[in-house]
Every structure is written in structure tokens, then in C-alpha cells.
Amino acid sequence: MERGLLTPLKKLRRQVFVEVARVAFETERGDIMDAIEAIPYKITPGDKPLYRESIWRERAICSERVRLALGLSLRPEDAPVHLTSGLRGSDIADKYYEPPLMQVIPSACAACEPNMYKVTDNCRGCVAHPCTTVCPKGAVSIVNGRSVIDQSKCIKCGKCKAACPYDAIAHRTRPCAEACGVKAIETDDLGRAKINADKCVSCGMCMVSCPFGAIADKSQILQLIRALRRGDKIIAEVAPSYVGQFGEKATPGKLKAALLAMGFVDVFEVALGADMGAAIEAEHYAQQVATGKQPFMLTSCCPAWAMLVKRYFPESADKISRTLTPMVATARTIKQKYPDARVVFIGPCAAKKLEASRRTVRSDVDFVITFEELSAMFEAKGIDPETIENHAGMHDATGAGRGYAVSGGVAGAIEKCIEAYYPDTKVNIQHVEGLEDCRKVLLLAKLGKLNGSLIEGMGCPGGCVAGAGTNIAVGKAANLVKKTVAGSTEQIPPKELAEVRLE
């Protein structure tokens, strides 16, 4: 679905986050149970449903969204579990995470046909009947002058659809399954979608593709706000795709001012860590790949891409750059400056929540929230990043690091560094976006077809600006990032940045 459109579904998601954030900001722990119980009734008032067949179903779905926003798992459908069950353990100022991250809300799922060809009212009952002629299984017949497909015989080849001169045959698919590049969407015994956690890489594309809002991920906004209220020293690191995400007038300086007004002690650009990564990976490519010591190199910054490699192409896992991801490199830089601080990563990515939960990362990054979740926190707190008094902007990075937000930006930054640092080194760039195309390029690499290449993989089509937690249209976001890159004072980081050690 198109990001940037304020659909009724988008409004419902936003309302849940806003109300949970408002409870976290305004309610004491002793009163939180009642406040949480009231949220579904506040969002779905009265006794007439707006989108479903009953108000009861709407509230049931809303209740599950509230649980996920609190960092809790969905309730079982066949057992009596209270909405606030487990809340005491979640209402803390520390990270709280229970896998799986992505979950299907069963009561919200419309049980879409996973793959079906169906004759529509556009059928004119023509004399030629090409649909019957091309079908290899005799699944298409003429009944009362119109085409009918016998689903028990149909093999989903699509030949009937291609042959129809009136485009009268529709190919119905499950939007979430279509968006999943690793085929992790399966079907339960009631025809509803379910996510195979062993296949899922948490990119979130299923979540943004479901028009019923049946898929959602867990949030840490409650825990983050509790930490802010407790007075913890929390530093925000903001992903380079933030440009324009909080309104056209929300300049970097205004966004920083808004975050400081929220209670954060300082704000850093994650592009700083990207600059470090570009310098290090340029050196690695020149010394290892260009010399033939290593057949190819895979970028490491996208967690969905990295998980795809490790899970589906384990023989290539050692080709993933050992460079710290921009999120982790920036977090370690922050904690060198503020040893007693906690760090929240603010970005477009659902998979970063999973990355931050890894044993090797959890001591560096304490919280992860998306742009969508931060927007809700601003609204709950009454902070407008577009109208707040400006603050000194963020000047932590170069154009190279800021360009990481768009597809091709990672490889482009590394290529610029190679050209500047190692001018005699020829570089072969491959960049792909979307997990399905990522799998194709990894297969080619496995077969030895891409030796000598620097391969950039992005789980989301369009790059980080297309992440599941973004607020604005992908094309608009990409243009704003490119404008920011072009306007950066420095275009590439100094070569010496590769020598920085953040162990």
C-alpha cells in the first residue's frame, strides 16, 4: 500500500499509539490498568461499527493492537486472557521484548484467497471462448453463456486470464503474501494468514501491505516513556531517512528541538555510524575483494537482508561485512561520550527492533522506535516539530552517510570512498531492493556469477525510506534525502575514520 496516505487504517494505528503514549506520559503505575482498559472504548465509541460487522469485533481487534503497542503478545483465541494480562511485567523503564516481533491478529484477518483465478462480471460470454481453449486442465467451462472456473481442477497457471480479451478473469492473491519475499506467510486451518517465524526476517512489508491492518509489530513506546519519566539520561540517534517524516517544515534543527523537549538529553545522526561503515568497507573492498582474496562482499546495514543471508544462504554469511551497522556504531560512539546514558534508535525499520534484541547489540541500543511511533509520542505530548522553536541543527555526518537511506546509497557511499581513498581500485557495484530480488542476487553470487562485486541488499523496495515505520510517500522521502545529501557540507568521510575502533 502507498505510504504517506492517511487512510482510515493509518488513523486507527496512530490512535492506538497516541493513546498508549498518552497513558504512559500521564498515568501513574497504580492507575494504568484502568487507563489501558479504556483505550478500545475511546477509539471505538458508541455501539455502531465503522468498518466491521460489529462494534464487538472492532473493539476486540483494537484490544489486540493495544497489547502489541504495549510490547505484549497477542492473546489466545481459545482461552480467557485479560487485556492487561502481563502488563505489570511490561510497565517498566527497561527493554521488554518477547518474540515473535511480527504477529497476525486473527480477528482482523479477512482470510483472503492466497491464490485464485476468478471470473468477474466483465465476462461478455464471447463466441471465441479462448479461456476454455488455452486451459491445460479443462478447468474452464461455459455455463449459461459465461465462463466458470472449476477451482478443483485449476492449477493457477494464469493462461485463461492472459487469453481473455475483456480482462474478465481476476487473479486474487493475499496482499501480505505477495509482499513477503521469503514466503513466510502461510494459512491456518480457518483460511487466515499466519507467519512462519522460522522463515520471517521481520522486514514488515506484510504489515504495510495488509489493507485490513491484520498484521502488526510490537512497540517499546511504553517502556521508553517510562524511562523518560524516571529521569534516565536517554540519547536519541536518528536514522538518515528522518528527513521530511515529521512535516515539511520540520527541519533537522526543529526535530532536534522537539526531541529535547520530549526529554532526551542529546540527539545524534545515525549517518555518523554510516560514515564509519563506508570508510571501513571501502578499505575492506580494496584490500580483500579487489585483490581476489574474497570473492564478493555483502553490506551489513539492513538487518532483514543480513538475516536473509544467514537463514537462506548460510554459505555466504561470512561474506557479510563485519563492520558495525550504523545503528550500533553510532550507539557505541554515544556511549563513549555518555557512559551512563541509554540509547534509543529512531528510524523507519521494524527489523531494527529485532537487531537491537540480539545478545551482541542489546547493551548498545536500549530502545528502538519507528518514525510512526515517535509521531504518536509527539502528539500525545503536544509537541509539534513543525512549529517548535528552532534549535541548532544536526551536523554529525557527511553526504555519504546520509545517503544510506535510499536504495543504492550504501554502495554509492562506499564507491565514493573507494574512488577517493584508493583511486587505482576498480569497483563493481550490485544493489538490489526487496527480498525477492535479494534472493535472486544471492543465488547468482552463490553460483560464482558476481565475483569481485560489492553487493548492497535492502529488504524494503526503495531502501530505508520505504521501511514499515515511515510516515510519508516513498518517492517524496527519497527526493528529500537526496536533496539533503547534495546540500551536505562534506560529501565523504575522512579516510582516517576507518581507524576508529568501537569495541
General description of the model:
By secondary structure, the chain is of the alpha/beta class. The chain folds into three domains: 8-111 and 177-222, Alpha-Beta Plaits; 115-173, Alpha-Beta Plaits (2-Layer Sandwich), CATH 3.30.70.20; 234-499, no CATH class. It contains 19 helices and 15 strands. It has helices at 8-26, 32-43, 55-69, 87-90, 130-134, 159-163, 175-179, 205-209, 221-230, 252-262, 271-289, 303-312, 326-337, 351-356, 371-381, 399-402, 409-421, 435-446, 474-486, and strands at residues 102-104, 115-119, 140-143, 146-149, 169-173, 185-187, 193-195, 215-217, 234-238, 266-269, 296-298, 342-347, 367-370, 428-433, 453-458. It has a four-stranded parallel sheet, sandwiched between helices. The protein has a three-stranded parallel sheet with strand order 11-15-14, sandwiched between helices. Helix 1 packs antiparallel against helix 2. The radius of gyration is 25 Å and the shape is globular. The two termini are 41 Å apart. The model has no long low-confidence stretch (mean pLDDT 94).
